[in-house]
Amino acid sequence: MLQLQSKLPSQGVTIFSVMTELAHRLNALNLSQGFPDFPAPPALLEALSQATLSGYNQYPSGDGVLTLRQQLATQFLTRDQLQLDPVTEITITPGATIAIFCAIQACIHAGDEVIIFDPSYDSYAPAVQLAGGTSVHIHLDAPSFQVNWQKVKDSINANTRMIIVNTPHNPTGAIWSEQDWRQLIELIQDKNIVVLSDEVYEHLIFDGQKHHSALQFPELRERSFVIGSFGKTYHVTGWKTGYCVASPQLMRLFRQIYQFANFCGTTPCQIALANYMQQHPEHIQELPSFYQAKRDLFNAQIQNSRFDFIPSQGTYFQNLDYSAIRPDLNDIEMCQFLAEQHKIVAIPISVFYRQAPESLRLIRFCFAKTDQTLQRAGEILVQC
Ligand SMILES: Cc1ncc(COP(=O)(O)O)c(C=O)c1O
């Protein structure tokens, strides 16, 4: 007689699986899940096959292949003039999600509170719950989805142990300004609060704006975990390779958990990424204009539609407001309507909230797609 209780009883199947299944079943254009439908750079694929043929097929160091950690340190040095020790301050992980999970398990104990800004990436709150903590959800202010700092101040108390930041932000494309970081520093600098900064879209930032990493602020260096994803940056989400950067003290806590969560990542992917990064430093410089052109192509077509939008500032997502089309439908119903009637699949924004505002009429489209896919999407959406 098994009598097991779910540890996450309110969690169903994620909306990403639901929508991807819907796209397959209806043979619809899939702009829901966040991944490219174009190939990775040929030189990177070549580097992967070279790595496997050269025998890099056994476990790597638990902290990650050292050359990849060194490449990452070089990237941070070039971009932010930031000196990182690849041995004590960088761990390569099988994707960003496990790094987020381990950072939360490393710091959160029963009774601790974690501030999460909604809409938020769906893995944060369950990870807090599994650690025994409580997530405190603060709504970002629509339509620009900026942080309301008074609400943050009012939410901080003696139990607050972590604040989760995500910039550039999935699903809204909003980014944190330097001023946002300064506000955060002011609120937490004399408190026992760590920052988990999810920066997986760090290189996807548009209109000449600059990404501000938590690591750039000396006041945050000792209290921040910064999480990144090679999958997003190098068009290989299926390689599930990411990283965590933290001070040696925080990294020790992180590795205590990570060694039992996964122990290590995938050797040939790490070798291939290290070689590609060394040989193609221009890749990350070209990314903003590469994705900005895709955003602009998508948005230029929507200009002539009944959807309303604020251009995304970062990530590869564009949100569209459909109030002028079907205000009677909530966003889940709208996504179903679009899939069934127009054969195009998006993601409802309400699923990124613990409790979404009733008035929300926003859906998310991923523009990490070929120009052909984006043109087809535009043709469909102007008909709606
Ligand atoms: C905000 C955010 N964080 C983390 C991840 C997970 O990245 P990875 O695929 O490297 O686990 C994603 C992926 O969609 C994301 O959007």
Protein architecture, described:
It comes from Acinetobacter genomosp. 15BJ. GO terms for molecular function: kynurenine-oxoglutarate transaminase activity; pyridoxal phosphate binding. This is Methionine aminotransferase. It holds the Pfam family Aminotran_1_2. The protein has 2 domains: 15-40 and 282-382, Aspartate Aminotransferase, domain 1; 42-280, Type I PLP-dependent aspartate aminotransferase-like (Major domain) (Aspartate Aminotransferase, domain 2). It is globular. It contains 14 helices and 12 strands. Strand 3 (113-118), helix 5 and strand 4 form a beta-alpha-beta unit. The strands form 3 sheets. Strands 2-8-7-6-5-3-4 form a 7-stranded mixed sheet, sandwiched between helices. The protein starts with 14 loop residues before the first helix and ends with a helix. It has helices at 15-26, 42-53, 66-80, 96-107, 124-130, 149-155, 178-188, 218-221, 230-233, 248-261, 267-279, 282-302, 331-342, 371-382, and strands at 29-30, 90-93, 113-118, 134-139, 160-166, 194-198, 224-229, 242-245, 317-321, 344-345, 347-348, 362-366. The model has no long low-confidence stretch (mean pLDDT 97). With 384 residues, the protein is an alpha/beta fold. Bound molecules: pyridoxal-5'-phosphate.
